[in-house]
Design a protein that fits this description.
The complex is a heterodimer of chains A (about 160) and B (about 180). Chain A is of the alpha+beta class and about 160 residues long. Helix content of chain A is about 20%, strand content about 55%. Chain A has 3 helices and 8 strands, in the order ααβαβββββββ. With about 180 residues, chain B is mainly alpha-helical. Helices cover about 55% and strands about 10% of the residues of chain B. Chain B has a two-stranded antiparallel ribbon. In chain B, strand 2 and strand 3 form a beta hairpin. The longest helix of chain B is centred in the first third of the chain and has 24 residues. The chains are: A alpha+beta (about 160), B mainly alpha (about 180). Chains A and B meet through helix 2, strand 6 and strand 7 of A and helix 6, strand 1, strand 3 and helix 7 of B. Strand 6 of chain A pairs antiparallel with strand 1 of chain B, so a sheet runs across the interface.
Chain lengths: ~160, ~180
């Protein structure tokens, strides 16, 4: 209280500093230069009841697929510029190509193509929340199904 | 303010032992070299002595008991709840506190807005809305299911391997797909 009575300018300066930080943070969010894309390759199967500890953070998402076991096969993160393209090698000789399209209202639009031996399996355009993910699954792999978690985040 | 004036203002406090060691030493040195201020000191000491003698002489006649009873009564007196409530409200909404609340509210809003950035896994009130919007899917002749899983707020694109001759070894595992 004494500080406010004797140094009101200090309180004003503190408020302005907070507002500036908020403005700077907002501006930084509006103009991301690239996107960090992470692909997690997971093998879902029914041969055992094993749940890979590395997938702990995705447990709720994966359990909805109703397989008995989930094993992490590969994790890969790449920085992709807007309108650029990055390819990720997926187990089973597959290739996933991701091209970030736009960033609007904290959501990222991605063009995704999965190919196997140069044959396209699926082409899709998906808009996900920033730091969110979606799941692309189904291709057979080692007696189970391959599940890909595709997430994107602005740095 | 001259040296004598400032020292005279401090003589009373000096006599009562209320000054810091440094201040006390400064006054003592000044009094040692200033006859006028020493005279003020002598007068104050005489006054103190006279007051002390007077109080000592009359102390036996003063009734302290009613005074202490009054103090105790006021300490123990319970104020009505609404008076206490109003008092607390006055303290809470006093101008200085309200002024501090402005930066405090800004800081709180910034902290809440930054939770997702610094603690991406931490969610207020369950999982956040992670649903994706699927603008287009081309599965090149395969069957495809688009699912929105409500519990984890996740979008799933599931490809069914139903083309003839395609990876028959894994047919059993993927023919039916997951039981969503």
């Amino acid at each position: 209280m004494k500080l406010l009575k004797t140094r009101p300018s200090l309180v004003l300066l503190f408020s302005l500093l907070l507002v500036s930080i908020a403005g700077w943070g907002g501006a930084a969010e509006k103009d991301p230069q690239s996107v960090q894309v992470t692909i997690r390759s997971i093998l879902a199967a029914n041969k055992s009841d094993e749940f890979d500890a590395k997938l702990k953070g995705m447990e709720q998402q994966l359990k909805s697929l109703k397989y008995r076991s989930y094993r992490s096969l590969k994790d890969e993160t790449k920085t992709v510029p807007w309108q650029g393209t990055q390819s990720f090698e997926i187990p089973g000789g597959r290739l996933l190509t991701v091209a970030p399209q736009e960033f609007q209202e904290n959501r990222i639009a991605l063009k995704v193509r999965l190919t196997e031996k140069d044959k396209p399996i699926v082409d899709t355009t998906v808009t996900i929340p920033n730091k969110g993910n979606f799941i692309l699954g189904g291709p057979p792999h080692e007696g189970g199904a391959l599940v890909l978690s595709i997430s994107a985040a602005t740095p | 303010m001259t040296n004598c004036e400032s020292n005279r203002e401090s003589i009373g406090s000096w006599l009562d032992g209320e000054l810091s060691p440094g201040e006390s030493e400064s006054v003592r040195l000044h009094l040692a070299g200033c006859a006028a201020c020493s005279e003020v000191r002598r007068q104050l000491e005489s006054l103190n002595l006279a007051l002390k003698n007077q109080l000592t002489a009359n102390a036996a006649e003063i009734e302290f008991l009613p005074f202490w009873r009054g103090v105790q009564q006021r300490i123990n007196q319970k104020r009505p709840w609404h008076e206490e409530f109003l008092e607390r409200c006055r303290e809470l909404f006093s101008a200085p506190r309200m002024a501090w609340s402005v930066p405090a509210v800004i800081a709180l809003v910034l902290a809440l807005a930054s939770i997702d950035f610094y603690l991406p896994g931490w969610r207020l009130g369950g999982p956040r809305n992670n649903f994706a919007t699927v603008d287009s899917i081309d599965a090149h002749g395969r069957s495809v299911a688009l699912l929105r899983e409500n519990e984890s707020k996740t979008t799933v694109i599931w490809l069914y391997q139903d083309q003839e001759g395609e990876n028959e070894a894994a047919e059993d595992a993927t023919k039916s797909g997951p039981a969503f």
